[in-house]
Amino acid sequence: MSAGGGPDVGAGAAASGRSRAAAVANRRIVLGVCGGIAAYKAVEICRRLVDAGAFVSPVLTEDSQRFVGALTFSALASEPARTSLFGAGADGTGAGGGDPIPHTRLGQRADLVIVAPATAKLIGKYAAGISDDLLTATLLATRAPVLVAPAMHTEMWEHPAVQENLATLRRRGVHVVDPESGRLAGGDSGEGRLAAPERIVAAAAELLAVSGDLLGARVLVTAGGTREPIDAVRVITNRSSGKQGHAIAEAAARRGAEVTLVTTTERDVPAGIEVVRVSTAAEMQDAVLPRAPAADVIVMAAAIADFRPKAPPERKIKKDEGFSEIVLEPTHDFLVDLGRAKPAGQVLVGFAAETDDLLENAAAKLERKGLDLIVANDVSQPDAGFEVDTNRAILLDSTGSAEEQPLQTKHELADAILDRVVRRFIRKDP
What we know:
Elements: H1 17-24, E1 28-33, H2 39-51, E2 55-60, H3 70-76, H4 102-109, E3 112-118, H5 120-128, H6 134-141, E4 146-150, H7 154-157, H8 160-171, E5 175-176, E6 180-183, E7 189-193, H9 197-211, E8 218-223, E9 228-229, E10 235-236, H10 243-254, E11 258-263, E12 274-277, H11 281-288, E13 297-300, E14 307-309, E15 328-330, H12 334-340, E16 347-354, H13 358-368, E17 373-378, E18 390-397, E19 402-409, H14 410-426
Parallel strand pairs: 1-2, 1-3, 3-4, 4-5, 8-11, 8-13, 11-12, 13-16, 16-17
Antiparallel strand pairs: 6-7, 9-10, 14-15, 17-18, 18-19
Helix pairs in contact: 1-9, 2-9, 4-6, 5-8, 10-14
């Protein structure tokens, strides 16, 4: 899979038919259908999912029914199509079959939510957090992975607003199957054609295949840059935003792990992740070390200060007083402690943020600190490293294997890292 929190999943990533069926079988999938001519292809998506053994719950927008009727989906799906938060559904028993909160129930029970086709209207509402119908309310109510397959005319697909809304969704971990080029409605041709149903089903199978591969695992993640006080109000810090560490914590939770995130940031964290807020390197050490022995996987993504001011005053130093000098002392490198005390079976992942000699420095750190895997990235590049939403890296592990990761979102890299952890250290594939 082209890693997690919002990848563009291509046809080349498709699993075999047998593995797709295994991943999809007995899983609950909400299939959202929006109002566009490509809605007729959602019928084939529904059929393929049901044939693979999925329990499919169709949710149709009002506009979608101008193209394909709800009874068509009700006849093919695992239960009658739902069309409204309040009105009658296709079976005449009410939007939720008598359920007063159908969006909540659908969102809670789903293993995956697919929207195909996803119109520009739906993408905009979802990005803005607007829930004015059953489908958008379900999207906001679910914690399951979400896969959207856009379809629209080329001019709409290329509009900056649509692309910005999709970028927002990708940053939040929504997965996207990009449209194809080909014949469009009205005889036009160009980019914006809904991806083939087999591509969408294959992408769904990929997501479901990894969604539980860390089920029951205890994952401890650190994030952000520590802040070391100079006086009562000033600090020495670094440029780390915490985005990569937070993306890893979110990806691990989506894959079924029990996640604890120790972070220096105030970034929002999805429900279900235990959050410990810290500031200094010492506070992070005090939060991590007691929790480390119980963890199955530890990912040290935080940028922990190597030095801190020695004996900082407890009051603010006035500007006219100035500082005659700021004496720095090294912080304790407790990652070394984690490597030495690592219990059998635990996987320890570190990061190497470098500006030169990337591979050499990362390999030395991997060995010196007793790591299983190290994520090496060149933070001097403007589109990777600190503060930005993208990253590129090389994954080096203790078996001597190196895997280069191209430029991608930090959510995608988060899943690539976890893929490597699962493949090499949990499943122990060759």
